[in-house]
């Protein structure tokens, strides 16, 4: 830009504008480690892990990078904001999952206002447990049985009737 006054004096101001394409942040390498199970998550994925009981804690790791700089990252598990630690572009969080479906959402925003979200579902399956097994035949004593037990029950005759009672957890 050049300016000239009525006396012929001039001044020049030069400026350069660099236009860059601002890509949204990239969320990658999302992995959820639950005891013996590692889930490598992708956006929209649905995964299942089995555990003996719930709730269970695990470690979620992921990377967030952006060409012009990451402004913010939010991690939510079942709509609850979860804390994380950051080392460079690597993020790590201890997460707690309940039995059944667990929604995980990682959101990132860059300095240009672009946003990116990665969501996945981790279903925690708790197998049923049979317990409190009791056997009673005719007027005999009640026998309490643990899984795999073998117990003898003396009967007066083979034409006896009895009851077996038990409890099933995690159905």
Quick overview of this protein structure:
The chain is mainly β.
What would your notes on this structure say?
This protein is mainly β. 0% of the residues lie in helices and 57% in strands. The protein contains no helices and 15 strands. The strands form four sheets. It has a five-stranded antiparallel sheet, with no helix packed on it. A five-stranded mixed sheet has the order 5-12-11-7-8, with no helix packed on it. A hairpin with a 5-residue loop joins strand 13 and strand 14 (143-145). The radius of gyration is 32 Å and the shape is rod-shaped. The mean pLDDT is 90.
Summarize this structure as a short list of keywords or feature phrases.
single chain, 171 residues, mainly beta, 0% helix, 57% strand
- Class by alpha and beta content: mainly beta
What Rg, in angstroms, do the CA atoms define? 32 Å
How would you describe the shape?
A: rod-shaped
Approximately how much beta-strand content do the residues carry? over 45%
What's the overall average pLDDT, rounded?
90
Instruction: Quickly count the helices.
Output: 0
Task: Walk across the major sheet and give the strand order.
Answer: 4-3-6-10-9
Span between termini: 77 Å
The parts where pLDDT drops under 50 for at least 5 residues are: none
**How many strands, which pairing sense, and closed or not: the largest β-sheet?**
5 strands, antiparallel
Order of helices and strands: EEEEEEEEEEEEEEE
Number of strands: 15
Helix content: under 10%
